[in-house]
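Run FAD-dependent monooxygenase through structure prediction, thanks.
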Amino acid sequence: MAQDQRTRTGNRVDTQVVVVGAGPVGLMLAAELRLGGADVVVLEQLPAPTSESRASTLHARTMELFDSRGLLDALGPVPGEVRGHFGGIPLDLTLPGSHPGQWKVPQDRTEALLGAWAGGLGADVRRGHEVTALTVTEDHVDVEAVGPAGPLTVRALCVVGCDGEHSTVRRLAGLDFPGTDATRELIRADVAGIEVPDRRFERLDAGLAIAARRADGVTRIMVHEFGRAAVRRTAPPDFAELVTIWKRVTGEDVSGGTPLWINAFGDVSRQAARYRDGRVLLAGDAAHAQMPIGGQALNLGLQDAANLGWKLAVQVARKGSEGLLDSYHTERHAVGERVLSGIRAQALLLLSGPEVNPLRAVLGELLRSGDTRRHLAATISGLDIRYDVGPGDHPLLGRRLPPSALKTADGWPTSTAELLRGGRGLLLDLSGDDGRTAELAAVAAPWRDRVHSVAATVIDGGPLSDLDAVLVRPDGYVVWAGSDATSPEAALRRWLGLPHDEHPISGGLS
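Sure, done. The structure for FAD-dependent monooxygenase is below.
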């Protein structure tokens, strides 16, 4: 239902999707749902958006996704750097693409960007609402919450938990979350009024120290003391604890500083057994908990949202093909499993004592090899993903559409990112043949509400220059690469759902 058709009955609100959690992942998902035409209510326990920088790294694939939604102008200039790391060992992240490397954006800025985008698209974001109960029936879910005006029930076709490592949705739904709790931890904070040397993963005799001073004079510090076990916490550590450990590891006194925020995080590694259980879905840290090394946790979650949003919008509109929504679990669980494995390896390299130094030395040598460097850079940047999208042997199938400059048939310059900004699929005709163009447009016509058909030519060469046509999902992944003897109809039906003139499936959430 459109947003102005949302119904209210007493203290109940009816919608199509309820998202729990208004962090970056929940807001990204809400915006993607609205792009796809789905009605969404977001419930967030905190009364106001975060003012803390926390996760501050966006990787190449996330920046490409933001570009494909037209968000980069609103984000404004941000510092980029090709130098990253693997377990604290320097790693050049340069790879082909429009945004190589990593980009430093404080979490509060990312959250503000996504919040404004979601709100502008009509997402109903309700802060100060604590979820207390969840009921799942054959045809809907009821999410009960307590907010500033008292109890509220949101009835929807489904609920998505984007509410973090300790997800209330996951707990109330009884979903398995296997893995291991943290055994080691780092304490981190943004501190004003201190003067310490910048440190990039400096391993000292007693532990690991990281410090980076920002242009505004605030210093981000992180510290781990070798051999010190993780503490089971119900609240953030106090500044005195950080001061003590920093002193033991570095010999420096930072007690005169003022902490803007402080928290602790450890090497937890857990992943939900299922990202979807009927009408209950999980994304971001609710689906996978990991040590936030190099910003991978945030980027993994944002890419979950980009994968799920368009699929769920198609499904709640009762147009989804069989298995479309289950492909969210199939695709993203495998990606998450691989990323978590890499993060566990990095945690061992970072937080182990001197006994790991020989391994670090050997790995440092290997990272100077082109193939090894490119392999690890791709896994960290999110550019290595290849989904199983069905038959075909073209090397682009299942991979992201490479960023490319194009010229439309009527001569206008454009780009692959610009053509994806409406949040619809893209049938990109590169044949240069009027007959083929007409044929492809006719095939795509029954999906015109979900697919943008464009005839263009590639003006910068590259991997698209030898293609006749490609079909691209709304999240930017190629699901059909054609020749003049093939048709995208089967791929359209599988990935974009039923044509507009076919009867919808019952229930809206098969």
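The chain has 13 helices and 30 strands.
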